[in-house]
């Protein structure tokens, strides 16, 4: 389903080259001062075309509120936001229709929806759908003023010197993957549930909703698999739960422990590489060389941080509401 | 919540040293031939005490069916299974009560539940709760006879020679982490949804419900972050969707593509290391040295594979039912 | 939450005098031929101003598809439909702001949302929100071509001669209540679950989402409370499950039995009566006489049938999908 | 699904003549003092055999806690309660197997579950399943000490003199229906949501999970359909929301308004009438006379009040938790 959350429930909809993309939030507390201006900074960060390595396609990405606001505040009723699609060049994609693009959802979508899918620009599978998620995240962040969520690209193409990683891709005329690291400060102790609704489960669930994410690790993550228990265990040093180290990434037994929440995401290289590829032409049934036209990001990881923050905020606000850390009427 | 799944819904309950642990499955199709014997092999695999590096605590782990079976078949009504707890030594834990064990949920549970938690042996947070999950997984596997789920430990303490990794831990008198790799063959194309209910989202959600899991990666996973697009993209080679490589791990756009589903889990070292530790004594409010008594696994990753298979099976059976790949009445 | 359904999930949003009202459907099968024309007949039925006793307010009620359609068919992605609000006279309502209207949600909304609610014309509580539900119902009906859902007003003001009942209200210069009866033919045997997800539970749940509904009864309903078992029991007369009578209204043990599903709804009189009323002025804190201005229905039951059909269709399509009576790709 | 609730989630399971019946509650706050003794009074009320018109079958109905309690308090982990079945006479039912009993689920269960259902004594459809619901209700009631829920039989066989109504049935050697009225005092203003999660929707949903319920009405209910608006509207008389009348039954716009919540349920006559019936013999495919053996209630409405209270309590506690009227750790 295209929704996430138990109390603060986010629904996203739309297609890359259809009428619009957007979202509905159900369960947002009443009384939060909110306007398009609150969303624009994060929406701006999500947009490409500003930095080296991102697509020159620039949607206006202006959030039109269609419901849920009154006198500049949330009403407690569902909030609907629409983004119009107005800078699309579908023609680019029509020509490629005979090649289900490797690394893209073209082929699986065709099978799953019996050929009824909107294939233009990835349709409903497009990363453009994250516009709605970013808007939801901005609202969630504003509700949690004491919580500070920060995501950043920490590696590109295996390089921590990001400029260098990007240059490698430019030189190779290829797209490239990267790592995004997210930290959260200011969380209360006790969010999450043992087992199925652990904080890791919730965050991983929504993180894998972000296109191109192929891995997630909390705290020491995969490195923990190489450690001894005496190294990995975080000694508790006082009655606030502060630990001497933070290999657990702020979550123990699925529950926040009051230390910084830290996780890292593996972002695969943009599937739409400028390089010529060899793959199936489903009209001829043969493998052929082809290349992808259109405007694309060289490294999607570059645009991911604000989406990662949004996903994290959406997961956490729901846990905050479940644990009664935020009231149904705020402000 | 202690439940997972939309149609095939699994609830787990119990405490390590309470009356019992167990589970209820709602939504299991009617007509599946089922008995305790079907569950025993996987339950046996989950048990410790058989192999080097696992705890000598051996519960009988016999599954008592309390509802949902009639004449040796599932009825379509909820299936309840209870496991009795009968080999517990709570005394071991009482003595340690003043130290919230590092790497365990003792401290967060105390905060979250206001001191009402059953703290004996980790209580509800104990890995003993996975007994119910393993039983549910065995049922899910039996429902999907054409699907083959296999998990195995592929690294211990950073060593792919497992014997060597374990010996390092024994020599160090410490616990150690590991990697579990899970593969699934025989899945249909088209399971999963774009975004929030991607197959990765569903599997990651339940995988992080397994105690000690701190990371997950699909296909090339974190290595993808270092790759070029032309390397990572899996060329489709025929109209069945078969790909030349499988860096995506069988999932594209959140949807199964008919290739082998592959993922890896990072398992942290057992929190209960035999080594002496320095941590908070919450009675004195001071940091002190202490050591953990009781019977524990040197490497929990060793017992994880069958749990990982179960979690995978539970996630997949739900998607199979949602996509009408399995009928409400089987057999 | 403003959503209903487990697989075919309908979300409604909007306010009477805000930007728009609308809905999102998640989980609609792909491949259904669909256009605004398919929705217009039911939307037309919902509109007032055509028949004696309904409000002269006439919105255009044209459904703008914002997502989920491509080449005239559903894609399997969420369907978003917006209705613009363009014939509103908020001024009428501003004047009445000091009186929380009896029988309306004004007072509870004010308490629940801390004064942040959009109060104009009932805001989010307005029956105008049912526009989205009617659109969802029209889609659900089209998916279930073999199922025939019919609702009609069968009583007004206690009179089965509807003209007479309405005339009573006109003569009394008052609003009046009524009864709507809904029948469903062509349902398969076996929909619904014992207990919490009985067909009665599902239909009653959504029926009480319709404004002004205050009672529901299936089959003989309240009359059953006065009957003997030998009278009420429906004798099964053949192996298709056909019964000699249908006191059960087509549902036994919460499950459809293949006979006609029948239920009746009690619709209270329109709260906005033309009559002067005596109630609280919350600015003065005193009870005062006041009268309600604006355009209103004399008998809301008159506009209810198409909404009742829609609610029924939405509840049933979800059960049909759960029971695999409809495929994920249709047509 | 056999579960209800979003935060306080109740799952019921079991069969009339199987191993056991029982329930799991997920989401119960920690810290509530609780023991079997707290449940016994309501369980005792549910049992038959004490009053004229109820079945002489008397299960011990002792609640065995299998999880979720520690040191006499709830822990915050799932609470599992089992009731053993030990006073069953399956033989009675085997003989009737060839007649799917009219008014019972025998025939629909057979169709739905492909003949795999446990048919003995109604199996999973038996009213014995309400034992778990009554236990859940007793816990919910204890959590809401300021809320007073009272249900009572107010009509039998159309008579408000209950003794007279019951005598009619005894004289007619037939079973008979009745009305149960439920009132709730002490609720806060603001529970419930507009539309799909109205308080009426929630209560009706769970009320129709009670076997034999065929109708529900809130406040004036069906009588409202015969009233004028000026009669039905409840004038608000002060700033606490108190109304001069209570035709709305304490719910306006789907939201509690602080006045007494009142609703009535229509209970059909016990399907198992002592009278000889004429119905299908599915072995011969012919209609034949047959009579039902076994111990049954003459009027199931007599045992319903405690179940109705439980259902109401379960619906309301969930809304109370959603609206943060009860904390995650109590006591």
From TrEMBL, chains A, B, C, D:
<keyword id="KW-0028">Amino-acid biosynthesis</keyword>
<keyword id="KW-0285">Flavoprotein</keyword>
<dbReference type="InterPro" id="IPR020541">
    <property type="entry name" value="Chorismate_synthase_CS"/>
</dbReference>
<keyword id="KW-0521">NADP</keyword>
<keyword id="KW-0057">Aromatic amino acid biosynthesis</keyword>
<keyword id="KW-0274">FAD</keyword>
<comment type="function">
    <text>This reaction introduces a second double bond into the aromatic ring system.</text>
</comment>
<feature type="binding site">
    <location>
        <position position="46"/>
    </location>
    <ligand>
        <name>NADP(+)</name>
    </ligand>
</feature>
<feature type="binding site">
    <location>
        <position position="52"/>
    </location>
    <ligand>
        <name>NADP(+)</name>
    </ligand>
</feature>
<dbReference type="Pfam" id="PF01264">
    <property type="entry name" value="Chorismate_synt"/>
</dbReference>
<comment type="similarity">
    <text>Belongs to the chorismate synthase family.</text>
</comment>
<feature type="binding site">
    <location>
        <position position="253"/>
    </location>
    <ligand>
        <name>FMN</name>
    </ligand>
</feature>
<feature type="binding site">
    <location>
        <position position="295"/>
    </location>
    <ligand>
        <name>FMN</name>
    </ligand>
</feature>
<feature type="binding site">
    <location>
        <begin position="268"/>
        <end position="272"/>
    </location>
    <ligand>
        <name>FMN</name>
    </ligand>
</feature>
<keyword id="KW-0456">Lyase</keyword>
<keyword id="KW-0288">FMN</keyword>
<comment type="pathway">
    <text>Metabolic intermediate biosynthesis; chorismate biosynthesis; chorismate from D-erythrose 4-phosphate and phosphoenolpyruvate: step 7/7.</text>
</comment>
<protein>
    <recommendedName>
        <fullName>Chorismate synthase</fullName>
        <ecNumber>4.2.3.5</ecNumber>
    </recommendedName>
</protein>
<feature type="binding site">
    <location>
        <begin position="124"/>
        <end position="126"/>
    </location>
    <ligand>
        <name>FMN</name>
    </ligand>
</feature>
<dbReference type="InterPro" id="IPR000453">
    <property type="entry name" value="Chorismate_synth"/>
</dbReference>
<comment type="subunit">
    <text>Homotetramer.</text>
</comment>
<dbReference type="InterPro" id="IPR035904">
    <property type="entry name" value="Chorismate_synth_AroC_sf"/>
</dbReference>
């Amino acid at each position: 389903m295209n929704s996430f959350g138990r109390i603060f429930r986010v629904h996203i909809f739309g297609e890359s080259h259809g009428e619009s993309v957007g979202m509905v939030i159900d369960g947002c507390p009443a009384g939060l001062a909110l306007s398009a201006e609150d969303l624009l900074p994060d929406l701006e960060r999500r947009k490409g075309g500003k930095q080296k390595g991102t697509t020159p396609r620039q949607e206006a990405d202006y959030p039109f509120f269609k419901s849920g606001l009154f006198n500049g505040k949330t009403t407690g009723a569902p909030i609907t936001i629409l983004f119009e699609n107005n800078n699309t060049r579908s023609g680019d994609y029509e020509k490629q229709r005979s090649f289900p693009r490797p690394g893209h959802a073209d082929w699986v979508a065709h099978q799953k929806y019996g050929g009824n899918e909107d294939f233009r620009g990835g349709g409903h599978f497009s990363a453009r759908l994250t516009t709605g998620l970013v808007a939801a995240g901005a609202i969630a962040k504003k509700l949690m003023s004491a919580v500070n969520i920060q995501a950043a690209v920490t590696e590109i193409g295996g390089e921590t010197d990001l400029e260098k990683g990007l240059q490698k891709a430019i030189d190779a005329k290829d797209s490239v993957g990267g790592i995004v690291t997210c930290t959260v400060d200011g969380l209360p102790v006790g969010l999450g549930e043992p087992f199925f609704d652990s904080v890791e489960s919730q965050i991983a669930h929504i993180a894998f909703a972000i296109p191109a994410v192929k891995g997630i690790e909390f705290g020491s993550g995969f490195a923990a698999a190489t450690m001894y228990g005496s190294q990995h265990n975080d000694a508790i040093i006082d009655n606030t739960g502060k630990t001497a180290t933070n290999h657990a990434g702020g979550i123990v037994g699925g529950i926040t422990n009051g230390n910084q929440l830290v996780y890292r995401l593996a972002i695969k290289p943009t599937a739409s590489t400028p390089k010529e590829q060899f793959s199936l032409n489903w009209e001829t049934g043969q493998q052929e060389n082809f290349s992808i036209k259109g405007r694309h990001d060289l490294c999607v990881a570059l645009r991911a941080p604000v989406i990662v923050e949004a996903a994290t905020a959406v997961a956490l606000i729901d846990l905050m509401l479940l644990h009664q850390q935020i009231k149904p009427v705020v402000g």
